[in-house]
Amino acid sequence: MISRGYGSIGPPVPDDPQLPAAAAAPLALSAQRSGPIRGEAATPSDKSMSHRALILGAMAQGETQVSGLLESADVLRTAAAIEAFGAGVTRTAAGSWTVRGGEWRSPAEPIDCGNAGTAARLLMGAASGFELAATFTGDESLRRRPMARVIEPLRQMGARIDGGPLLPLTIVGGALRGIDYVSPHASAQVKSAVLLAGLRASGPVEVIEPARSRDHTERMLGVFGVQVEAEQCAGGWRVRLPSDRRLRAARLAVAGDPSSAAFPLVAALLVPGSQVNLSSVLANPLRTGLFDVLRAMGADLCSTNPRERGGEPVADLTARSSSLSGVEVEAAAAPSMIDEYPILAVAAACASGTTIMHGLAELRVKESDRLAAIVAGLHRCGVNAQMQGDSLIVHGCGGPPLGGASVQTDGDHRIAMAFLVLGLAAQRPVEVDEAGMIDTSFPDFAALMRGLGAAIEPA
User: CA-to-CA distance for 10 and 15, rounded, in angstroms?
Assistant: First the structure.
């Protein structure tokens, strides 16, 4: 349970989120065409930032105040983990948390990350810097996801890792040395794991990536007093920790998640007569690739009121119903929108012409094989789509797809949400076989969408 003192014994605080002991029960949902999608909404807070705020707060000296924390199942796993490592964690109000950091200790039980790959990889990096032993595990889906790309640099830094390359595995940390790591992938999770471990390592710590990946860890380290150096180099992009790596407690507010904002925004683009306004959405250029592609397709998508929140740029977004046309999306765009390809495929299905998306190998090792799930779901909804290597080709219907299908989600929250949006635009209702796992990233998705006029109901 989550109580006023996160680890205290006693009844839960009324209306507090509950940390699931297992995956949420399956719940089939159905979406169908109704009236326009209209209104204003507050986008759920960014999941990537929420994980990092908790972990860095737990590593810093003093009390960190976080507002706007995403209270999704994945983020609550991170909250439970840092408490098991010895941090003080208190939920003071909805979205408002206090984290008291310091030295981490060996947890009494394995760290269960549920379905949260970000939590697992970042916590493995952070824990490696402390003199402790910790076993990491997760649900069936997470235990199939690759960990070798994180294990390799952590071992090079001196962490002892028993098991792998899949979870469960045990890390024995402490006494780490610096590293000059050339990553074969542009991966924010790998980079972040090395940087978090490097905070307590001796010697220089730097990571070179072939392309620039999300920089939330670097930005948030600056909020906690550690100014990371970042620059373009011959090998791609280099980030380097400074010699002063002391984390100081901070106050920070978490911005709205562009990956979650994508669903109501695309719904508004596809349903005639629609207009949706979302406030305080993260505008980090390393996260806005989808919005750039949608504009290239002809989307009426406006960004206003730019400002800063939690060390990140934010803006308000307005989407109005639009006629979209197919485009070709190069592989270089993938790091800035890797989680948004399912909903982009839905937009492409309703567009005129063909949309080709390259460089999607990473989609095969997400919560599901997203590439295969997208193609299978589109086929069931009457859309011509195929895979060619690591590329996805969607032949748009030039209007509402047929729909009238039940789509298998394979336990993937983004597949579920994407095909529910398709159901709002399709000629016939679309059902997803499972939707309980949407809570891992977007609690109250169905309620928010219904508040904007969407017809999404239990199947």
Answer: 15
Q: Which helix (H) or strand (E) holds 315?
A: strand 312-320
User: DSSP secondary structure string, 24-81?
Assistant: PPP--EEEE--S--EEEEEPPBPHHHHHHHHHHHHHSBEEEEEES----HHHHHHHHH
Tell me the C-alpha distance between 202 and 206, whole Å.
Answer: 12
Task: Write the pLDDT tens digit of every residue in 90-148.
Answer: 999 999 999 999 999 999 999 999 999 999 999 999 999 999 999 999 999 999 998 99
Report the Cα 442 to chain-centroid distance in Å.
Answer: 10
SS3 4: coil
The one catalytic residue among 339, 410, 412, 439 = 339
Nearest to 74 by CA among 134, 28, 143, 138: 138
Beta pairing class for 428-432 and 29-32:
antiparallel
Q: Which domains does the chain have, with CATH numbers?
A: 29-45+256-458 (3.65.10.10), 47-253 (3.65.10.10)
Give the predicted TM-score (pTM) of the model. Answer: 0.91
3-class SS letters over 117-141? HHHHHHHHHHHHCCCCEEEEECCCC
Would strands 133-137 and 111-112 be described as parallel, antiparallel, or unpaired? parallel
Spatial distance between the Cα atoms of 435 and 423, rounded to a whole number of angstroms: 14
Q: How far is CA 6 from CA 9, 45, 78, 312, 439, in A?
A: 9, 21, 12, 28, 20
112 is catalytic: no
